[in-house]
Amino acid sequence: MTPDLLTFGEAMVSMRSAGPLATGTPLSMHLAGAESNVAIGVARLGHRAAWVGRVSTDEFGEYVLRQLRAEGVGVDGVSRDAERQTGLMFLEQRSADLTRVQYYRAGSAGSALRVDDLRAPLAAGARMLHLTGITPALSDTAREVTCWAAETADAAGIPICLDVNYRARLWSREAAREVLTPLAAHASTIIASADELDLVGDPGADEPAVAAELLRRGVETVLVKLGADGARAYTVDGVEEVGVVSVTAVDTVGAGDAFTAGYLSGWFDGLDLTGRLRRAATLGAFAVSTRGDCEGLPRRAELALLDGHEAGSVLR
Amino acid sequence: MTPDLLTFGEAMVSMRSAGPLATGTPLSMHLAGAESNVAIGVARLGHRAAWVGRVSTDEFGEYVLRQLRAEGVGVDGVSRDAERQTGLMFLEQRSADLTRVQYYRAGSAGSALRVDDLRAPLAAGARMLHLTGITPALSDTAREVTCWAAETADAAGIPICLDVNYRARLWSREAAREVLTPLAAHASTIIASADELDLVGDPGADEPAVAAELLRRGVETVLVKLGADGARAYTVDGVEEVGVVSVTAVDTVGAGDAFTAGYLSGWFDGLDLTGRLRRAATLGAFAVSTRGDCEGLPRRAELALLDGHEAGSVLR
Amino acid sequence: MTPDLLTFGEAMVSMRSAGPLATGTPLSMHLAGAESNVAIGVARLGHRAAWVGRVSTDEFGEYVLRQLRAEGVGVDGVSRDAERQTGLMFLEQRSADLTRVQYYRAGSAGSALRVDDLRAPLAAGARMLHLTGITPALSDTAREVTCWAAETADAAGIPICLDVNYRARLWSREAAREVLTPLAAHASTIIASADELDLVGDPGADEPAVAAELLRRGVETVLVKLGADGARAYTVDGVEEVGVVSVTAVDTVGAGDAFTAGYLSGWFDGLDLTGRLRRAATLGAFAVSTRGDCEGLPRRAELALLDGHEAGSVLR
Amino acid sequence: MTPDLLTFGEAMVSMRSAGPLATGTPLSMHLAGAESNVAIGVARLGHRAAWVGRVSTDEFGEYVLRQLRAEGVGVDGVSRDAERQTGLMFLEQRSADLTRVQYYRAGSAGSALRVDDLRAPLAAGARMLHLTGITPALSDTAREVTCWAAETADAAGIPICLDVNYRARLWSREAAREVLTPLAAHASTIIASADELDLVGDPGADEPAVAAELLRRGVETVLVKLGADGARAYTVDGVEEVGVVSVTAVDTVGAGDAFTAGYLSGWFDGLDLTGRLRRAATLGAFAVSTRGDCEGLPRRAELALLDGHEAGSVLR
Amino acid sequence: MTPDLLTFGEAMVSMRSAGPLATGTPLSMHLAGAESNVAIGVARLGHRAAWVGRVSTDEFGEYVLRQLRAEGVGVDGVSRDAERQTGLMFLEQRSADLTRVQYYRAGSAGSALRVDDLRAPLAAGARMLHLTGITPALSDTAREVTCWAAETADAAGIPICLDVNYRARLWSREAAREVLTPLAAHASTIIASADELDLVGDPGADEPAVAAELLRRGVETVLVKLGADGARAYTVDGVEEVGVVSVTAVDTVGAGDAFTAGYLSGWFDGLDLTGRLRRAATLGAFAVSTRGDCEGLPRRAELALLDGHEAGSVLR
Amino acid sequence: MTPDLLTFGEAMVSMRSAGPLATGTPLSMHLAGAESNVAIGVARLGHRAAWVGRVSTDEFGEYVLRQLRAEGVGVDGVSRDAERQTGLMFLEQRSADLTRVQYYRAGSAGSALRVDDLRAPLAAGARMLHLTGITPALSDTAREVTCWAAETADAAGIPICLDVNYRARLWSREAAREVLTPLAAHASTIIASADELDLVGDPGADEPAVAAELLRRGVETVLVKLGADGARAYTVDGVEEVGVVSVTAVDTVGAGDAFTAGYLSGWFDGLDLTGRLRRAATLGAFAVSTRGDCEGLPRRAELALLDGHEAGSVLR
């Protein structure tokens, strides 16, 4: 059955510390990866989501697959890689306010993704293809996959959502801009934080100008994430803003992916822009008020649990 | 002050699981590394031990240094490496009887050890230099360090202890033999398990023949570790055996390093062969009856705690 | 020795999660039950409190009894039930702001309470009988017990405190009103949240009108709990308010029971209304600033620990 | 795609204690259910397994579904039940040698299974249908499903495996015998412990006589589980025995289900009886040497991990 | 109501480590104290047990009282001490086979017990008074209490049970002998391990001779605990032995107290010597197969749980 | 090599609870002690710090030494004490807002510090000697050490920093004043909270007057800690204030010591007063936003992690 969402990228094992790593601390295992987070967020809400990637045959690869299957994300298109290890990510709770990340992902199975891995899944179609700016930064082949996928989907009439997701550890802003700006031209939806707009538009232009230019190039919706101030959406109809849903924030990791998943879920449900933004804000609120990358994302019946929480107030 | 023991190699962070990795499990951090285990074992018994290695400047490197310092191991000769990460080791408790190991150590800081790192520490001297067959398997530079150290110490009259410690994941038996056999000629003490003797002697010869040949080549003592059957020592005076000290074994990781540390401690104390073997067996018993790579090793006042346990009975 | 407080109801085992149940989470065992919470709160302050209920002979029943005895609550009147299981309650920490409750209490030992179980304890007397609106919702026999107890105590001159405690999962507002309104006529003290007043008074009337009517019918004190705004007390002398004691709220479960226990403790100590309300607010503050249903309640010497905290500020 | 194995029954949440329940103890969540254990064991080895049952829409039901999906067990035929709760099982570690079980499963979603739930999955076919004697003991409708499935599969030429699995808490031996003896006539494989043979054969006959009678009635293989003594298989070709694989037993819960899964996996792989029994013994060994109902079951690549362990020795 | 058992002594908080203290380890709180262990063992079996001691008013003292009340042990005779702290005991799990104890009990509240504390409880009578050789070693006043209690009970016709329980850290064998030998003359039951008999009898005599002399002096039963070999009872009717009940031993702390509690319970039930010894062995088996000082002791309905375990085999 | 900082005092093991002690709670081990906290804070920033004290030879003493060595604090001057135990401190998390401390430190090894213990370390010199008002309160000999050290260092031209650190449990304000006021005359830096100024100056004078008088007596800098309001520094050049760095406070234990360590680190680095105060505020922020006495203190490379946090805002 054709999935609603098709996405691809690298899924890692995230090891979260309970305190500073230097003094020794227990670690807990979690699934990490921007694209798999979005797939899970969408799947929990009852949409069909498929994720494609290379997963090692080691025990951490088994862990990754178990988690994706548990969430009901389609993994039929996953390739197993017996020669590379699973990428790891250590998320250190240095203090109440400081988290630090360290990666062991160079040469990982996930970074070895290649065009052949995605051919069949993309040929099977989807209502939306979701890309992030992380995948093209992983390796040459991963960059090829991303560009090939954008072009192929665009040609096939599959709408594309691009989340810029700049990772300074993986590549420079210049290298990112060179890849992401052309990619953006294929997208119908672009999601970026305010300081990422220069990677998909004129670095010298301000936010409204970049958005306007993207709309002119055919993008339908430009979403600018504003952290505690919510988000702003640019379309040909103008600008719309949404605040955050007021909850107690305990973990901001994965909040952006939750926002994206909520937005896409609204799109699959045929909601108007206001409805899509509200769902995006609701999923973001679930994400930040639960520890873990995607553990807190709601099932459909749970969406109403935050109804009483006033939208628009500052997220603390 | 000149240390009693000087050793060098790679120290890693060992992450121990409480169950199968594939289903997700808590992990705890420990220090790992054959040479650092020996240094700790010797230091806990009150001898001066110095360890040399390259340690990353990341948080895991800080953890490694903290642990070594805590144990009173000299780390003045440690080099910090800001460009490479700390090697990791995952020790999975797959079932009550099965443990599995997975490494993330390729290109680690520890494997980048080079001759310059060891010059000053070795020039400062020591009563004994301890080498293992792991270090030369890590990288070209690490192999150079090992060979250079053996030759230099030998020329300077510093006795050398070599623990063969073959690691099949790091190199082939042939590659190991090519390096270790010449190394053995520099050693005064050689420690090996029964199935490692072919790496330091004629692969076609049996245990007594290999031992005899090593003694002929100038080695003073050849120690063959026999697991649950204890150990056998060959010297020019003949063969002597020691059984294991009877304890409840809960974790055999690090038992060989404990045995070595006990033997060397006896040597530093000037004990005769029987006394050295007994202390080796006692340290092995402490190691196997405590979880962790080196956490269970005794301080000097604790040696007597196992006095009541009959030596020579089968270790279960 | 005649107890100060006599109360009866169902005590359950509360299993609290550390996170979302759907992804699997550790659970910890706690004692739960509005009436037992009040008994514990009163007993910790040094008053004699007796609790009556049916407790299963299974291991969870043993747990319930152990906890009540540990707190010094009199359990001589407890009946053991070998044919029914202990009621369970799962308290899920869905996110930092959301807790959800699921019960396994249908047909429990506690719900099988009958008049015969209470005869002897009530005949022994008490300075105050405490009822809640939960017990009559459990079963036909439990409703009979509650009504019988109110009538019998009233006839015997034992003052009655009724905490409305409406539970929507157990019965409808209509069913509750039919039972609770007549019960209220026997009470000298009535405790309710603002949205529960319609269950003991004219649904069309506002708060002051309901309170006035209850006072006319013989109730001495009507306490309206206002959450973060504190509480309001109506007596023939007028209206008095108390704010909350400012603490860091981490768990609001049991806060109402703590408030009641504090009020009753003040009554047992002969405090005036102001003093009773202040102690009620203090116990509420202890309850919300500790995890658990009743673990945080203070012993008498601990009452002063919150003295520095300004009363009257908003409880967050 | 037609599954290799089709099975149905009740899946519960098993809450395992770390110590005696009466003194309070942490609990951990696990998936429980004889049929789902078998489905997981078969799926981990790479066969297609489908499980059918009624699963509550509450959070525990979500947990059950997540676990089954994570293991790759087909759940397309699962019915969701919004009116009943998930059955719970408490597995108390009373002492090192004593475990006790307490159920909260009366009226559970799982026990409400009915023929309509199984129609489509069974019509889709399978290489083997697996039944246990637990399901018909759950409720009238569950008994109907079991009998209907046996008759329907038999008529359709789908081989049936029946694991007697007598549960004294659910029904009497007489009631069980009345249902299970006719069921046995439909089975090609019958699995029972020695003291369960009277439920599928003449209570006055000894083991060989019961087995002979079952073979006469058309059963192809009768497997008698002997605990620490292994198992005995009766076929028309005679009797064959298998010992246990020697491992450290830490948890015997689920060992019988593991044995069944191993046997069926061998059958799917076309192994001869000896091969099927060996795989059964191997899976049993994995199960008893890991804590949990099914957590320890091996994937195909892991089967060889116990190769060094001598088969036939007594399991301790 | 007169208790079956009256006992007195020091109750401490035992902090148990999960590993070596020197490297830092989590600690868990438990109740410790030989006499309170016996009181709990007897109370769990349904007898009335009262414990007398001085308990600090600090939080650890509250913990002690909570635990005793939870177990249903009578604490009406307990004196609170606001000027001294609760005695602490650290139980270090140094390795799988080695536990070490460190005390912080000098000058504790418990050691300040004085005759006045025991007057009323002893005047109220009991069916049996239980003493241990620990209490007189705590302080001068504690020794006075013990001697006074023995004399007073003897004069009042209350049978006395004395468990020698020699503690080398508290006093010398000579000091102990001087106090315990006269005490023994008041006892009707004496319990000792084989190496403690010299403290209540002629140091030069062998076990049968010491037992014979004690019987001559009026002792009715002399119980000699033999560890893994069970126990031997001397009476005027001869010698009777009991083996241990075969279980998996995980913690021998408190095993002797469990043995005593089982013996006394049998005595309260009017069992013959064989029955008393069997119950003693059963309680010992429960104690050693559960972690904790007294957590594993059985309630009456649980006694049968070990029925299948063969008595008389060696305890491992 | 001469250390930058020399300090001395008592180091204890702090056992931190996860909840109220009275109901039983897990405990975790930490190192505690105002002077060792300062030494660790300074050592983490790369300065050479030496700590002197008496440390028991028991396991807790080993723990103390391991922690100090792990942090790179010089412990060559430590004396081991085989006759006294390590002082313990229980830090109870009574509620979210309330922590309580209970000590077992009377007669501890640490309190037995004597002049001879400090002679050699002080003779070796240091750039700064740090004293606290806790040490002279521990015992007669500890008071002698403190006074002797102040006089000796002063005479030798070693600048002295005195943190008043009044502990009401150890001595009265009068006793403290009698010792601390003369001590203050030797100090070049005095650190006190606002309510401790009367212990080093005229009790009737206000803060500016006390500071002025201290400056007149030769003190160079008087630092007044103001909690959530930051700190104020008095020098001959006037008054300078610093706010707190805005972080989420989760544990204020050790915050004062962190402030001192930051100030001294700035002094060792030759920073001006503003720079010293900023570093002091930064270290305080690290301390309060991490659980533990000193676990959260930064290494030099981590100082910048809080750069984004606005200094001067109120610490919550």
UniProtKB/TrEMBL annotation, chains A, B, C, D, E, F:
All residue ranges annotated as the Carbohydrate kinase PfkB domain in the record: 20-298
Domain of life: Bacteria
PROSITE patterns according to UniProt: PFKB_KINASES_2
SUPFAM superfamilies recorded: Ribokinase-like
InterPro entries, sorted: Carboh/pur_kinase_PfkB_CS, PfkB_Carbo_kinase, PfkB_dom, Ribokinase-like
Organism: Micromonospora avicenniae
Record's keyword annotation contains Transferase: yes
GO MF annotation: an example: kinase activity
Family annotation (PANTHER family): HEXOKINASE FAMILY MEMBER (PTHR43085), PSEUDOURIDINE KINASE-RELATED (PTHR43085:SF1)
Keywords from the named record: ATP-binding, Kinase, Nucleotide-binding, Transferase
Matches recorded under CDD domains: KdgK (cd01166)
Signal peptide from the UniProt entry: none
Keyword NAD: no
Name this protein carries in UniProt: 2-dehydro-3-deoxygluconokinase
Family affiliation: Belongs to the carbohydrate kinase PfkB family.
